[in-house]
Amino acid sequence: MTQVTKGEIKAKALGYFRDVERTGEPVIVTDRGKPVLEIRRYIPLPSDPDKILRGSVKHIREGI
After folding, report:
1. Which one, of 39, 36, 34, 38, lies nearest residue 19 by Cα?
2. Between the CA of residue 30 and those of 24, 25, 60, 63, what are the distances in Å?
């Protein structure tokens, strides 16, 4: 995972954006040595709640 300062991201943002798009590896932006932002590839979530929750329920108890 790449880490850059706010100053670096300001100066070279487009290059970092292209790297994230190309490699899928997120970039962590730091402020005074502490992580404050993560730039990562956008992955749309399914809009159907059933698809979002599918596989997350292990057991359903009836009568509740």
Report:
1. 39
2. 19, 16, 44, 50
Tens-digit pLDDT profile for residues 5-16: 999 999 999 999
Distance separating alpha carbons of residues 12 and 48, to the nearest angstrom:
37
CATH tag, 2-53: 3.40.1620.10
Q: What percent of the chain has pLDDT over 70?
A: 95
Tell me how many degrees the CA angle 5-7-42 measures, rounded to the nearest 5: 65
The predicted model scores a pTM of 0.68
- Give the residue extent of every domain in the chain: 2-53
